[in-house]
Design brief:
The complex is a heterodimer of chains A (262) and B (293). Chain A is an all-alpha fold. Chain A has helices at 6-29, 33-53, 57-78, 81-102, 107-115, 123-152, 154-159, 164-186, 188-205, 209-234, 238-260. The radius of gyration of chain A is 18 Å and the shape is globular. Chain B has helices at 4-7, 16-41, 45-65, 69-90, 95-120, 126-132, 143-159, 161-169, 171-176, 181-203, 208-222, 226-254, 262-280. In chain B, helix 3 (45-65) runs antiparallel to helix 11 (208-222). The chains are: A mainly alpha (262), B mainly alpha (293).
Chain lengths: 262, 293
């Protein structure tokens, strides 16, 4: 389980877990679970487009993540946040359906992009993921204080000189970056579970932001490592275990809260 | 040659799969539009989308077990809707997260079921069929069941129309006037489950969000009364669905031997309607129907 080609898998998964955990902390704080679901899902047509044009899959995903950020923030000027998010999702997926219909032998590729293919990470992917995750982690650290302030009290953040609108854009950009990094590895649908599950469980366990962030990353790592091990042993898709373990973490947090009677 | 034949190609209406697609598609579009207006007003777009995705787990299970896909979609969607409404009652602030976590679990189960399906070897394209829908492959035998589902959802909405409208605009006001907010919410959630399952069957689990949110959001951009918003949403959704089916059928002639997907055309038409609705909103004030974001 720890030899040869699996080494890459463990390294990449660890990087993804840390970055997704850090971003997920803010996803939960800002109640942006829908955006965290839509950006990865809306980025996967990029991969289909890339295969159509014969360019690198990662480039297509990055471009479509960026388009998603622009699309959602533009639609947000016209409508409520979640309506804007839903509309972008529809548009992106319609394009994805069109691209998919133009390539004939892509069914297996779709499955991998949606549900992940963590067990087959090449050394070339490894470099790209490492760079992207370093940028994501650095940006999250940089934005930590203003984002925290803005999420807890928009008025206070405004007074401190940080405009809510540009922070929302910055937040979406970080989310998109984490998406682009994690998508080819754990799949569009599982990036989302990884962002929401551990962070919402951690938030139930503590009120202190820094402790919650640390807990989120720990839970995220545990989820990813556990999922890979179980997937390796059982041959079942890794996406199933990520979803199930993230759900379990949240359920456990809920139970803990109920016990404390908070 | 009649001028109409330039738009509606000969043989279009005589084609059995096309007729089935037109009937089931119209049913899904109408129900989704009606329910969607309330879903958008109540700020539950995420829940609506999550239900569609979670119900695809039911669709995959149906594939695996060989039972009617609509029953699979429907059963799981109803379960999930009930669970979300329950969580909402317990703690409204948690709704976004509970929805998210449940969506994650549902998608995980979908992944597993699809994987087990491909191992059995029968359904290699199941992932695509379940997620993206396949309008021209709907069996004609499903029509009565689909119409029944659509009818039940519409009747449910009609029965609770007034309290639902009131509680969607202001839950506090509805409570103060003695409306049963919780029961209304639950009925709406179940109607949402019915609408979403039907749409998931036709345009696919993922794109059913377009039918649910798109026409409603477009109508609410310029309609200033609930009744008009409902009528416009139905008109937009219905027109987009039939237009999309027609264009997809026509597209077989544009690019020989290869049609463009129906879902693409339907969403494109809905999105154009949404953009046009923004132009049509000439009034200086925000429409009164929508709560501030």
């Amino acid at each position: 389980m720890f030899t040869g080609f699996m080494t890459n898998t463990w390294i990449v998964a660890t990087l993804v877990a840390i970055a997704a955990g850090m971003v997920g902390f803010f996803v939960v704080l800002r109640r942006a679970a829908f955006a965290a679901h839509v950006l990865p899902l809306g980025a996967f047509p990029g991969a289909a487009a890339a295969s159509l044009l014969g360019v690198s899959e990662l480039a297509g995903i990055v471009v479509f993540s960026g388009l998603g950020v622009l699309g959602i923030s533009q639609l947000q000027r016209w409508d409520r946040r979640e309506v804007a998010t839903a509309l972008w999702l529809a548009v992106a997926l319609a394009l994805g359906t069109l691209f998919l219909s133009m390539t004939s032998e892509y069914a297996q590729g779709v499955y991998a992009l949606l549900f992940g293919e963590v067990l087959g990470v090449s050394s070339r992917d490894l470099g790209a993921v490492a760079v992207l995750s370093a940028i994501t982690i650095a940006m999250t650290a940089l934005l930590f204080r203003p984002l925290l302030l803005d999420s807890l009290s928009p008025e206070l953040a405004e007074a401190a000189g940080a405009a809510s609108r540009s922070l929302e854009l910055a937040f979406l950009a970080v989310l998109a970056l984490a998406t682009a990094m994690a998508l080819p590895v754990v799949g569009a649908l599982m990036v989302f579970s990884l962002m929401v599950g551990p962070a919402s469980a951690a938030r139930l366990l503590t009120d202190r932001p820094r402790l919650a962030l640390a807990l989120t990353i720990m839970l995220s790592l545990a989820t990813v490592w556990g999922s890979i091990a179980l997937s390796y042993l059982s041959d079942w898709p890794v996406g199933f275990f990520v979803g199930a373990l993230a759900g379990l973490a949240y359920a456990a947090g809920r139970l803990g809260v109920a016990r404390q009677g908070r | 040659m009649y001028p109409l034949e330039l738009i509606v190609p000969p043989g279009f209406l005589a084609n059995e799969p096309v007729r089935t697609a037109l009937i089931v598609g119209a049913g899904a579009a109408i129900v989704s539009a009606v329910v969607g207006v309330f879903t958008v007003m109540r700020g539950q777009s995420f829940a609506g989308h999550a239900l569609a995705d979670v119900s695809s787990a039911g669709g995959s299970a149906a594939f695996l077990l060989g039972i009617s896909p609509l029953l699979g979609f429907l059963g799981v969607a109803a379960l999930a809707a009930g669970a979300m409404e329950w969580a909402d009652v317990r703690d409204a602030r948690e709704r976004d997260l509970v929805t998210g976590v449940m969506l994650g679990v549902g998608l995980g189960v979908t992944a597993l079921l699809l994987y087990l399906g491909t191992i059995q070897g029968s359904t290699s394209g199941a992932a695509i069929a379940v997620l993206f829908g396949s309008m021209f492959t709907i069996p004609a035998s499903i029509v009565p069941l689909a119409i029944g589902v659509a009818g039940v959802a519409l009747v449910a909405i009609a029965v609770i129309y007034r309290p639902l409208l009131l509680s969607s605009l202001s839950a506090d006001l509805a409570q103060a006037r003695g409306a049963r907010v919780r029961r209304t919410g639950l009925v709406h959630a179940l109607a949402l489950a019915l609408a979403v399952s039907l749409a998931a069957m036709t345009v696919g689990a993922i794109l059913s969000t377009a039918l649910l949110i798109g026409p409603a959001a477009a109508a609410l951009r310029f309609a200033d009364r609930p009744g008009r918003a409902l009528a416009w949403a139905v008109a937009i959704g219905w027109a987009a669905t039939w237009g999309g089916i027609l264009l997809a059928y026509d597209s077989f002639y544009w690019t020989p031997g290869h049609g463009w997907p129906v879902s693409f055309f339907i969403v494109a038409l809905i999105f154009i309607a949404y953009l046009l609705a923004g132009l049509a909103r000439w009034r200086p004030r925000q429409p009164a129907l929508r709560r501030p974001a």
